[in-house]
Amino acid sequence: CRNYDGNRLFKIASGASDYDYNWTETLMKNVGGRMDGISLHYYTVTGWSGSKGSATDFNKDDYYWTMGKCLEIEDVVRKHIQIMDKYDPQKKIALMVDEWGTWWDEEPGTINGHLYQQNTMRDAFVAALTLNVFHKYTIVSK
């Protein structure tokens, strides 16, 4: 990509999904000098195949599992930052968590594939806890 008319593009590499530290290692090692940021995705989700659970019909165990899974984002962010620091000790490359939050089954009766889901206080707590982690690591996360 090129800069035009005095504007400088901010180049973001397509980063890893949650625990794929090898992806970050490979990008930083091979193309780290060509990017300004690297993205990261972290969803609080039970898994990618089969049911992800209901957004509104959950029990106490589901609730506490969700809170625990959500809090794992701090360790994930920290480990990606450690890899980035190895290749970019001046912290010129930003870690950009551009997809995050809960992901539940679509609501019954909605358009298939539109990913419509309700939100509850459980989702609000996940957002608050996640934003707290982002705030803690603002030096490199944008």
Automatic annotation (TrEMBL):
Q: Which GO terms describe its biological process?
A: L-arabinose metabolic process; polysaccharide catabolic process
Q: Which InterPro entries match?
A: Alpha-L-AF_C (IPR010720), GH (IPR017853)
A GO MF label: alpha-L-arabinofuranosidase activity
Family annotation (Pfam families): Alpha-L-AF_C (PF06964)
Q: Which residues form the Alpha-L-arabinofuranosidase C-terminal domain?
A: 98-137
Q: Which domain of life is it from?
A: Bacteria
The record's note on quaternary structure and interaction partners says: Homohexamer; trimer of dimers.
Protein name per its UniProtKB record: Alpha-L-arabinofuranosidase C-terminal domain-containing protein
Q: Which organism is it from?
A: Parabacteroides johnsonii DSM 18315
